[in-house]
Amino acid sequence: MSESAALVGRPVVLRGLRRGSALLFCPLLELPIQDSTKRPPRVNRQIRISPVRVIGADGAQLGIIETDQALRMAEDLGLDLVEVAPMARPPVVRIMDFGKFKFEQAKQARLAKKKQHVIHLKEVKYRPGIDEHDFSTKTRHARRFLEEGNKVKVTLMFRGRQIAHPELGKAVVDRVGVELADIAKVESDAKMEGKSMTMILAPK
User: Cα torsion at 178, 182, 184, 186 (round to 10°)?
Assistant: First the structure.
């Protein structure tokens, strides 16, 4: 059995990788590829080490081949030879459409950035004895914050002698929790902080 046939279907063992070297897993290649923020991968004639371990365009292991021969194989298919594991011995290369690969990587990066959401802590302030209209308005704001994926800090502020009746403030805070129970969970129960009572709500 030839070496090429024996390697088909077997995982590639990458030897000689420097500890701490930056590697990025690339689903398209199914192999680590050197982080492009450090150095772009070598392509075609930029690959000077010979021989190299070659992976075909279909993912098949083609064995250890002289670099010039691997380049001819890629050119015959109208594709590129891309170094995907430069620190392996011998280096691992793959036959692929490098332009298409770069386009897909850029597209994935744009999608990931678009989906990225930073969670903020939004504060909504209430007072004991708050009237119904203000309560509804503030609670509606809190609901919008939660729907946007943010956490909400419900703050009940006491004035003067109101601090002597924390149960009145607790009733307002608890009501907020009940009103938003369909989309929020209590992350931090109501507690006194100086002259205010706070509760943290998080999206479900």
Answer: 40
Measured between alpha carbons, how far is 182 from 69 in angstroms, rounded to an integer?
Answer: 64
Residue boundaries of the structural domains of the chain: 3-112, 121-203
Handedness of CA 13, 53, 15, 40 (dihedral sign): negative
Alpha helices (runs of H) in the chain, residue ranges in sequence order = 3-7, 67-76, 98-115, 132-147, 166-179
Out of 19-28, 40-49, 99-108, 137-146, the most confident range is 137-146
Q: What's domain 3-112's superfamily in CATH?
A: Translation initiation factor 3 (IF-3), N-terminal domain (3.10.20.80)
Tens of pLDDT, residue by residue over 64-94, are 999 999 999 999 999 999 999 999 999 999 9
Q: What is the pTM of this model?
A: 0.46
What whole-number distance in Å separates Cα of residue 60 and Cα of residue 94?
10
Topology (CATH level 3) of domain 121-203: Translation Initiation Factor IF3 (3.30.110)
For residues 41 and 82, the answer to whether their CB atoms sit within 8 Å is yes
- Decide the pairing of beta strands 151-157 and 196-203: antiparallel
Instruction: Evaluate if residue 18 carries a pLDDT over 60.
Output: no
